[in-house]
Amino acid sequence: MSRMTGSKSKSRTRPGARGRSSTLPFALGVGGALAILVGVPAWSRVMTPSDPAAAASDPAAAATPADPWARFNRRAYGFNAVLDKALIGPVARVYKRFTPAPLRKGLGNVISNLREPSTALNALAQGRPRLTARAVTRFVANSTVGVLGVFDVAGRAGLEGQQADFGQTLGRYGVSEGPYLYLPVVGPLTVRDGLGGVVNTLTDPVSLATGGPGTDFATGRLVARGLDARAGADDSLRTIEEGSTDPYATVRSAYLQHRAAVVREATGAAEVLPDFDAPADSPEIPETAAPLPDAEDPAPPATPTDGQP
Amino acid sequence: MAILAVSGLGWGWSRSTTAAAAAQSVPGRPGRDPRAEQFVQTEAQRMLSLLADRGLGRSEKEATFRRVLDQVADFQRITGFVLGKYARVITPAQRQQFNAVFRIYMQGLYQSHLADFRGDRVRVTGSVARAPGDTIVNTVINGGGDGGALPVAWRILGSGGVLKVVDVQAKGVWLAITLQQDFVSTIDNARGDIGVLIDRLQRDNQRLGARGS
Question: Which residues of B touch A302 (CB under 8 A)?
Answer without folding.
Answer: 204, 207
